[in-house]
Amino acid sequence: MSKIKITIFLILISTFVQFSYSDTIEIKVKINDQIITNLDIEIEKKYLLFLNPKLIELERSRVEDLARNSLITEIIKKIELEKFFDFTKNNHLVNKIEKQLIKRRNISNVEDFKKILKSKDLNYFIVKEKLLIETLWNKLIYDKYKDNVVINKEELRENIIIEFNNNKKKFAYNLSEIVLSKDVSEAFDERLLKIDKSIEKVGFENTANIYSISSSSKNGGLIGWVNEIQISKKINEKIRKLEVNQITEPIEIQNGYILIKVNNKKQIQQDINIDNELDKLISKEMNRQLSNFSTIFYKKLKKNIEINEY
Length: 310
What we know:
single chain, Chitinase A, domain 3, four-stranded antiparallel sheet, three-stranded antiparallel sheet, 11 helices
């Protein structure tokens, strides 16, 4: 058994023993032959609260539901990933996404990251595995669907040049998103009313956790800072009309709708490198299309998985 496996095993046993003195371990979900216990849900709640501290504003039962669903998603993805990857040999892949998380959380370095996790009663190796699952899932989706991604580079380049030559002031925006699927039986007006009420009651970030199908949902829908040149003309026209903390109306996108909140904005220099901005825009468009494929593929997997909740 590898040192990493032994370490994680000892941590889990220690946690289990500490927990069992004060609480009863109960099976809450069974996915094929794998189980989710109340202990797993408590750990996942702490992880989700670390990613989006505003979840503390939600009712305990709502956070528990989010944690349960998050674990179900994670296990279904891992079941599929284990068909293609050896988890013991791919730890190097997680470093990039770990650095992104550290940067997004304004943490100085990995050692500070570990200290913060410890203060939140979260184990670094457990979080590392969650990041690895996310990393390998993104790699699987890329390998599986990269040839299905369609990007018109010349059109994107032309759009960048047009925007750059426009004499308007240029801005960068700090954005958050809620992405909604079209593939839902509920009427859109009813769903939108439900989301509007949720935003009014618990805020945009918590509503993103509850309703958004984007991978950004765990982080309260946070996208971060984006140069307006990297934003599609359709969406940029909507965002430009907003003040800080305002939210767009639903904007139709491929296979769904998106609501965007402007967390902050700042004027930027107009000097740009066209090729660099094109690369960023291509990457963003590729990620958007791959995200759609990811959602569709996950739904197919879930249909073929036996899930029993207790």
